[in-house]
Write a structure and sequence with these properties.
Keywords: DNA damage, DNA repair. InterPro entries: HhH_motif, RuvA_2-like. GO terms for molecular function: catalytic activity, acting on DNA; DNA binding; hydrolase activity. By secondary structure, the chain is an all-alpha fold. It has one domain (3-59). The chain has 5 helices and no strands. It has helices at residues 3-7, 14-26, 34-38, 44-51, 54-59.
Length: 64
């Protein structure tokens, strides 16, 4: 998912999109749990909400 596509998701702004892209580049595995989302500064509530989003699970958490 590109920066532009990330910015279209509710709750993802320019800084968070950059953090997500940086983590994806530097990690050997895709995001897999709430702790991975919290590592980019999301609150428990926001991380839970994004993690349970079908869009996020299909795009952000996949390696493609």
């Amino acid at each position: 998912m590109s920066r532009e596509e990330l910015l279209q998701l509710k709750g993802i702004g320019p800084k968070r999109a950059a953090d997500i892209l940086e983590l994806r580049q530097n990690c050997e595995e895709p995001f897999k749990d709430l702790q991975d989302l919290k590592s980019i500064g999301l609150s428990d509530r926001k991380a839970f909400s994004l993690f349970n989003s079908n869009i996020v699970q299909k795009v952000i958490f996949s390696s493609s």
